[in-house]
Specification:
The protein has 283 residues and is α+β, with helices and mostly antiparallel strands. The protein has 3 domains: 119 residues, Outer membrane lipoprotein wza fold like; 66 residues, 2-Layer Sandwich (wza like fold), CATH 3.30.1950.10; 71 residues, Outer membrane lipoprotein wza domain like (Outer membrane lipoprotein wza fold like), CATH 3.10.560.10. The strands form 4 sheets. Strands 1-13-12-16-14-15 form a 6-stranded mixed sheet, with helices on one face. It is rod-shaped, with a radius of gyration of 27 Å.
C-alpha cells in the first residue's frame, strides 16, 4: 500500500491551527482605525446618549448611506478614523452639542483575500484588521498533507484590486511574493506577510517522487529540494534492506511523454515524478 510521506513541509497541527484561528478571530474583533471603508460594509455607529442615532448601517453600492438627521452621507473611501471625525463634525453643526461618536466595522464585506490550493478550506475571506499570512492560513484550516514547501502571494498592482483569485501564471502586472512555510512555522517575522485587499494566497501541491522495491518503507515522498540525491531519497524511505541490490538501482522517468527506465548512481539527482526502483539482489 502506497503511503504519503510529508517530511519537512509545513502542516499546521490541529491544536496550533485552532490557536491561530482564535488569534485571527481576536484580530477581527479588534478595530483598525486606518481600515478603509468600502461598499457593502456594515458599520456599527454609536452616538453617546442618543439611541435613536445609534445602530448598524450598511454602506450601499454608491459608497454612502442614509443617517438620521443628516441624510445621505458618504463613507466609502474614508478610514474609520476619518469617517468618525466627519460624522462627529456634521452632528455638531446644529444638531448636537459636543457629540461623542464611535464607528466600528460590524461586518467587513468589501475587502477580501483569496486562499486557494492545498488548504483544507479554500475560499474567500474577509480582510480584517492587520491580517497576516498565518492568520489567513488558520482561517482556511491550515495546509493539507499534499502541500508544497512555500506559499505564493499574488498581489495586484497599486490602484488595482483583484475581483477573484489570481494564479501566479496569470499575474501579468501583479507582485508575486514567495514565502517558505517552514520558516513561517519557526516564527520568522519577515515571513508573516501583512496582507492587502485582493491578495491571493496560493499553496501549490508538493512535488512528489516514489520509491519501490527493497527499501524499508516504500511509498510516495515529498521532493524537498531540487538537489535531492538518490541516496538522500533512500534515507527518507528508511534505507535499503539487506536484500537490496544497490548496484542495480534504476529510475523510471517520464521523458517526452514516454516512460524510460535508466540505471542510476547514489549521487544522481531525483526529479519530480521519478520512481526509484531498488531491486532484490541475486542470491
Amino acid at each position: 500500500m502506497t503511503s504519503l510521506r510529508s517530511h519537512g513541509h509545513f502542516v499546521l497541527g490541529m491544536a496550533l491551527a485552532a490557536l491561530l484561528l482564535s488569534f485571527a478571530r481576536a484580530g477581527a474583533a479588534g478595530q483598525n482605525p486606518d481600515y478603509l471603508i468600502g461598499a457593502k460594509d456594515v458599520l456599527a455607529i454609536n452616538v453617546w446618549n442618543e439611541p435613536n442615532l445609534s445602530g448598524k448601517f450598511t454602506v450601499e453600492a454608491d459608497g454612502s448611506f442614509t443617517f438620521p438627521l443628516i441624510g445621505r452621507i458618504k463613507a466609502a473611501g474614508f478610514t474609520l478614523r476619518e469617517f468618525e471625525a466627519d460624522l462627529k463634525k456634521r452632528l455638531g453643526e446644529g444638531y448636537l452639542k459636543r457629540p461623542q461618536v464611535s464607528v466600528a466595522v460590524e461586518e467587513n464585506r468589501s475587502q477580501m483575500v483569496f486562499v486557494i490550493g492545498e488548504v483544507r478550506q479554500a475560499g474567500t475571506y474577509a480582510l480584517t484588521g492587520h491580517m497576516t499570512l498565518i492568520e489567513a492560513l488558520a482561517r482556511a484550516g491550515s495546509t493539507t498533507t499534499s502541500a508544497g514547501s512555500e506559499a505564493i502571494i499574488v498581489r495586484a498592482s497599486p490602484g488595482k484590486t483583484a475581483q477573484g483569485p489570481v494564479l501566479p501564471d496569470q499575474a501579468k502586472d501583479a507582485e508575486v511574493i514567495k514565502v517558505r512555510l517552514e520558516r513561517l512555522q519557526e516564527g520568522g517575522v519577515s515571513e508573516n506577510v501583512l496582507l492587502r485587499d485582493g491578495d491571493t494566497i496560493f499553496i501549490p501541491r508538493a512535488e512528489m517522487f516514489y520509491i519501490s522495491g527493497q527499501v524499508r518503507t516504500p511509498g510516495a515522498y515529498v521532493l524537498q529540494t531540487k538537489d535531492t540525491t538518490v541516496l538522500q531519497a533512500l534515507s527518507l524511505a528508511g534505507g535499503a534492506t539487506d536484500r537490496a541490490a544497490n548496484n542495480r538501482i534504476s529510475i523510471v522517468r517520464l521523458v517526452d511523454g514516454k516512460k524510460k527506465e535508466t540505471r542510476v548512481k547514489l549521487t544522481d539527482l531525483v526529479q519530480p515524478g521519478d520512481t526509484i526502483i531498488v531491486p532484490e539482489r541475486f542470491i
